[in-house]
Amino acid sequence: MRATQIILVLFWFLCVYAPACFCTNVTYDHRALVIDGKRRVLVSGSIHYPRSTPEMWPDLIQKSKDGGLDVIETYVFWNLHEPVRGQYNFEGRGDLVQFVKAVAAAGLYVHLRIGPYACAEWNYGGFPLWLHFIPGIQFRTNNEPFKAEMKRFTAKIVDMMKQENLYATQGGPIILSQIENEYGNVEVHYGSGAKPYVNWAASMATSLDTGVPWVMCQQADAPDPIINTCNGFYCDQFTPNSNAKPKMWTENWTGWFLSFGGAVPYRPVEDLAFSVARFYQRGGTFQNYYMYHGGTNFGRTTGGPFISTSYDYDAPIDEYGIIRQPKWGHLKDLHKAIKLCEEALIATDPTITSLGPNIEAAVYKTESVCAAFLANTATSDSKVTFNGNSYNLPAWSVSILPDCKNVVLNTAKINSASMISSFTAESLKEKVDSLDGSSSGWSWISEPIGISKDDSFSKSGLLEQINTTADRSDYLWYSLSLDVEDNSGAQTVLHIESLGHALHAFINGKLAGSKTGNAKVNVDIPITLVAGKNTIDLLSLTVGLQNYGEFYDTRGAGITGPVILKGLKNGTNLDLSSQQWTYQVGLKGEDLGPSSGSSGQWNSQSSLPTNQPLTWYKTNFAAPSGSNPVAIDFTGMGKGEAWVNGQSIGRYWPTYVSPNSGCTDSCNYRGPYTSSKCLKNCGKPSQTLYHVPRSWLQPDSNTLVLFEESGGDPTKISFATKQIESVCSHVSDSHPPPVDMWKSDTESGREAGPVLSLECPYPNQVISSIKFASFGTPHGTCGNFNHGQCRSNKALSIVQKACIGSSSCSIGLNTNTFGDPCQGVKKSLAVEAACT
Q: I need a surface site. Which of 158, 369, 405, 744 has the fewest CB within 10 A?
């Protein structure tokens, strides 16, 4: 055999027997992404690698796979990876390569959203602050300095992926990449520079030769071959800008982000499932949940400003890595139902017809397959006839019929388990080890008020904060000394105008007043001056830099003035704005290493000061026992930042309380969802619990360092471990059978009925007790079930026999098992169980 023939045979062997490793080709047509020549219906979910830890990644990814995902989507965060120009960080939570490989190891694909603008409620939208200082630069427009830096970083990420063979054409998991992000939302504001920039970004990205398609989300004018995609709560009405491009949804918002000072948003799973089913019903073939796991904004990574440390996002996997039921389970069932339709979905375009007002049918039919979706977009139930059969369509729901006849799932009918979770408090006092003989177990240092560092400097006038600090710290001191004559008897007011985000005013070393605000902040603080020398120290601070909007990078912060003394004894006002101010970037304690607990000489002999501003605290503690997720409850503290064993768990601010109004006890999922529709926790602190990853803790000796900005009592801090108190399920005889059973039952001709299923949330757990079981007409919710007038006496013993001692169990709803306690009445089975 000639050499060329041998090579061809070898190539054929590799392509046939190892296609995932050597021959993955990714293209697209008008219906779908095409992988190795086959159209695919794909379900994706966002997990941002730096918002969790490498130790958490495999479990998060596996739970995503178990939930029915095919793809993991993540942004790439430029300011995380290049904090200093030319100096790169890809370690720890920034190990992008390890994250992508972890996804590959689970057998899932990756959508790499390089951007490099991310938004993502991430500090400065993901751009490094040093970018702001490049001469002549203008962000996100046809600007040569910006384009040079954007290309350099994008190319670096692409080259890293290529070196590790991580693109699909190299045998890796990456099947998609994104360039830019939601630029179409702000494009009009960039004028004549916008369109050339979009075209340049597309050309630059495709020139990097990744071998996989590129997308631009929210970019209606994305040039070929870039796929333009949709972001939003609903994208069923979205149409790509070319008949040659597939309908793709890069961000389906599973909830919304939490802001300090805001109530907690959530999104009912019935509405989320409805939006997903509608998208696939109307021709979509790629949908991504933003977020599938939101995670935590560790350190100073939050943007906003005022984005909270928690980025839970009401996602199917919660901030701590625990599946959120029934959201995770109901979506899992939805994904299975959609995949039952895949053969029909990829074969043809839908035929969409109206079955009445707000009732729509979409049929995918060829000679060999048929799948249908029946949607009721009204807020009231309806009954329709389709293909000669009658169907009940609950309000705001989609029924999925993989054979155009039998309903396998309705988005408004939940057949998955629910859970009751709680945090069990454990006093920090019990975990604290004595430090240097301190009776309280705490040591402390007072942060100097005003100028205390050698690198301070003086300038005439008031400086904008971000240009001054380059975001090296949240804090900037403005300090001024002035002599005044005897001012007794005068009501003096210090008038301060700031761009935000917060400020504290000290007069002669004493706190005189504070103010918080996102935009222009005006405050009048009554003060007392003494005859002679007076010192005015103003501490300005940021709470995450702007991450969204046109020209967001130019929005300033800090005390830009005027600063005026009003009502001096002689009746005059004194404008201090143009005087000689002394500035200090950051705090002395920050330079001395708070993250390692070595910030100066800790005081442990005198009594612990509490409710004092600008105080550092340190203690040693033993970790809570067990393996359940851990949080610190900062109730009793004011505002600041915390470090555990040198790792920043983020900014805490438990004193920022949400408004008293706007929340509802229950949220009606029917009708369009908005970020303010479903809120909870009104009138309470926006966030009291702050995640501490288990991998950051040692069993016995751990160090907690706090910087308390406004004043608090650290002895009131407690640990909290997350517990699952109960797993529940409530299924009625009107529910369709489980999706898993549909295909085998329809093929065999058996008539399947609904099934109640329970599963313990943690590995190595079993169902230890049945707290409630009732077959008949039970009512209520998980943790508050009650028997109805109709009930079977057998229910508890049947459920106990089927479930106790097992990690999961399934029970069919039929009168052969439970008897018929009330003939002719629709019945259901409700169960609450405990796992240990």
A: 744
